[in-house]
Amino acid sequence: MKLLIFVHHPFDQWNAPDWFPQRLQREFHQVCVVNLPDYSRVDEEIVDAEIVIAWSIRPEQIAAAKQLQWVHSPAAAVHQLMFPELVNSDIILTNAREVHGPVVAEHVIALIFALAKKIPDSVRLQQRHVWGQQILWDELPRIREVVGATVGIVGLGSIGRAVAKSAKALGMRVIAVREHPEKGSESADAVFGPAQIDELFRQADYVVLAAPVTETTKAIANAERLALMKTGACLINVGRGALVDEPALARALREKRIGGAALDVFPKEPLPVDSPLWDVPNLLITPHTAALTEKLWERHYSLFSENLQRYLSGSPLLAIVDKRRGY
Predict the structure, then answer these.
(1) Which of 269, 298, 310, 325 does the annotation list as catalytic?
(2) Residue of 173, 225, 240, 300 with catalytic role
(3) Which helix (H) or strand (E) element contains residue 200?
(4) CA distance readout (Å), 32 to 70, 163, 312
(5) What is the dihedral of CA 196, 202, 204, 205, to 10 degrees?
(6) Looking at CB atoms within 10 Å, which of 52, 77, 146, 220 has the fewest?
(7) Is 288 a catalytic residue?
(8) Are 153 and 160 in contact (CB under 8 A)?
């Protein structure tokens, strides 16, 4: 049985460390683990692979991989794998949503506090050696407390559930939108279906986008919905860049129609140096760092090794992606 790993990425932390395949080989003797340093040999190595760990795979590679039974993505988002050759096959697809969810939720809470307490503004004033107490108070929206504020979460997957739990612990009111509200509230005070998403944008002081990218969620934060938000409300995106209409968001911020925004993900990454977003007022940009942690690959290993044990024993796998729904 062959396990092929190819997770090459320009950012070091997204690449599997050397100990990852070595530890798998030590613990699973019946599996031949092949770890590729780049993509140059994928075409020849994938033809007899039964299991693959990869960020993405080309359709022709899926067609050539006659023995492939299971693909695991180290990412939570799998929209890049939603092509017919994989979706219409019997190949199992799993992802790392449970690896990233709690860590990304911590980042969301940090962003809520940063926006509420105007931390980025204080940093800019510090760099200018300005004691900006009066400035920070006079500029709207004013510094505020998060207790009693309403956070609206779009998507109650692993990230959304963790955000809801933490926000409730902080004394916030939590509302959410999920595709199937009958599945439960997951700590939220109210759960809406997709048809009621406008109500979430109207009520929330902080709108958190944590939904997968599907045909129905692309540009879900568009000009019309941004116009529904309170003038002091803030938008936070930790899902994928495609969830936000960026020009519409930039206009809303420049015209002070909403209070602020924080983006960790973008349609094109790295964000180009000439992107107008860099200079948009009241926009906090983090460079796709929400999921980063020193424990990242230990968490990956814990999930994947558990699933590999299940696979070898014929038990159901964890974190299976519904390929028809795209998440």
Answers:
(1) 269
(2) 240
(3) helix 197-203
(4) 15, 39, 13
(5) 170
(6) 146
(7) yes
(8) yes
269 catalytic per annotation: yes
φ, ψ of residue 154 in degrees (nearest 5): -95, 105
- The three-point CA angle 228-223-180 to 5° equals 70
- What is each CA distance from 252 to 23, 199, 261, 272, in whole angstroms? 50, 19, 10, 21
Q: What are phi and psi of 136, to 5 degrees?
A: -65, -35
- Token pair of 180 as six digits: 């199937």
Burial class (CB in 10 A: 0-12, 13-18, 19+), 165: middle
pTM of the model: 0.95
CA distances from 113 to 107, 116, 170 (A): 10, 5, 11
* Contact between 320 and 69 (Cβ < 8 Å): no
Closest CA to 136 of 126, 146, 150: 126
Distances (CA, A) of 166 to 11, 96, 211, 242, 298: 29, 21, 18, 26, 23
Give dist(CA 204, CA 151) in Å, integer. 5
pLDDT by position in tens, the chain (length 327):
999 999 999 999 999 999 999 999 999 999 999 999 999 999 999 999 999 999 999 999 999 999 999 999 999 999 999 999 999 999 999 999 999 999 999 999 999 999 999 999 999 999 999 999 999 999 999 999 999 999 999 999 999 999 999 999 999 999 999 999 999 888 899 999 999 999 999 999 999 999 999 999 999 999 999 999 999 999 999 999 999 999 999 999 999 999 999 999 999 999 999 999 999 999 999 999 999 999 999 999 999 999 999 999 999 999 999 999 999
- Domains of the chain in start order, with CATH, are 2-98+293-313 (3.40.50.720), 100-285 (3.40.50.720)
